[in-house]
Amino acid sequence: MPRGSGRATLAPAGMQPPAQLGLCAACHGANGHARQPDIPDLAGQKADYLDKAMRDYASGVRNVPLMRGALGAIDPAQMRALADWYAAQPVCLPQVRRP
User: Fold this and answer.
1) Which domain of life is it from (predicted)?
2) R_g over Cα of the chain
């Protein structure tokens, strides 16, 4: 699937999409494949890394006002659910075009 196609993947067995997925999916895609090249892909990242990154954005340790605002209303359990969701999504490598 090409980067940024916007197609959601099927939920991994036994996983329900997190309640707050839509908030992240607007930029990062429901399947973790960003819709724009300047936004990082989240699919396949380690859950612990994603969880800590979200906590750092929410607290201001990572000073990105857009992310701080987006994560401000999400509690730690919801952040963990989002981290687990994106970690379970398959990585999709970008297509390489030959000149």
Assistant:
1) Bacteria
2) 13
CATH number at 60 reads 1.10.760.10
**Considering its fold, how many domains does the chain have in total?**
1
- Give residue 97's identity as a one-letter amino acid code: R
Q: Residue type for 31, please?
A: N
Separation CA 46–CA 89 (nearest Å): 11
CB 28 within 8 A of CB 22: no
Please state the pTM of the whole predicted model: 0.81
Alpha helices in the chain (DSSP H): 21-28, 47-59, 65-71, 76-88
